[in-house]
Amino acid sequence: xxxxxxxxxxxxxxxxxxxxxxxxxxxxxxxxxxxxxxxxxxxxxxxxxxxxxxxxxxxxxxxxxxxxxxxxxxxxxxxxxxxxxxxxxxxxxxxxxxxxxxxxxxxxxxxxxxxxxxxxxxxxxxxxxxxxxxxxxxxxxxxxxxxxxxxxxxxxxxxxxxxxxxxxxxxxxxxxxxxxxxxxxxxxxxxxxxxxxxxxxxxxxxxxxxxxxxxxxxxxxxxxxxxxxxxxxxxxxxxxxxxxxxxxxxxxxxxxxxxxxxxxxxxxxxxxxxxxxxxxxxxxxxxxxxxxxxxxxxxxxxxxxxxxxxxxxxxxxxxxxxxxxxxxxxxxxxxxxxxxxxxxxxxxxxxxxxxxxxxxxxxxxxxxxxxxxxxxxxxx
Length: 380
Prior knowledge:
Elements: H1 3-8, H2 15-18, H3 22-35, E1 40-43, E2 49-53, H4 59-68, E3 74-78, H5 79-84, E4 94-98, H6 105-112, H7 133-144, E5 150-155, E6 166-169, H8 170-174, E7 184-191, E8 200-207, E9 212-220, E10 229-235, H9 238-242, H10 250-263, E11 266-272, H11 275-278, H12 281-292, H13 297-303, H14 314-322, E12 327-331, H15 335-343, E13 347-352, H16 363-373
Parallel strand pairs: 1-6, 10-11, 10-12, 12-13
Antiparallel strand pairs: 1-2, 2-5, 3-4, 3-5, 7-8, 8-9, 9-11
Helix pairs in contact: 12-13
């Protein structure tokens, strides 16, 4: 090949094309950086923002970020956390407050909702303002990473933008949740007899777009018969499902659903990787500590900066379609699941409550779900 031919030959595929969707790739990499306590650069506003997660921020990282700041650092928190601090704000919003020079990392973590509840000073003493698109995107990214939705951020000075920093746009972060379940792939399946039903098959799905793995437990033979299939959409609960915690009724619901499906000749239980209504195990345990201090489960989540339910059920609908199940009898106490699955094209022909044992340890939790989320907890 001549030099002129080499010059006009088509260039090799770029790395972004080889690795799939560029927007998705940028967000996934940003989530990994935040989880590891590294800074990311977020563009899309008047100036780029250099942001680090408060939860994974080390003292050394805090010192380096302050040294790199061309202007005073800000703490950006979710609207839910702002409301819990009495600063206003609402779901899906973000609020930023400048951090005084003398405020140390422990005080910042407390303002963000991590650790001690005694605030370093009254939040009203910290002037709070609005939030730029990059700051709001940084809070959104922390939330998707299952970190407390709070970041320390500075306006990114050109001298601070070295090659080690990953860049992601506010638009890419905002679009990350869209299309949940579209990147779901069936990975493996195997027969696994269970205590309550020996004729069971486990089907594992991987949501490559959202770094999650979900499991379908197929009880009996339910595929291709066109019948209305009993279905339970169950979010993972390590404490209840595995450790038999008395703080919730999740373990009872899990095993009760398998028994009911066995009695009826079959069904599908979808086990979703959405611990703690989507906030992750670490934040769920933090919420438990707040509940011990007197808050109910929803107020505890808000105190940490989360909404009442951070889960997505589009993945559940995608799994059911892959299994050939489109008409279901949903075993749930949560009417919201019926609405979401119906919007996703799953015909929910009926809903059945599925209750667990009420104890002195979980009655406040169950009452809060009934009172504040409309759960049907009538014993069936």
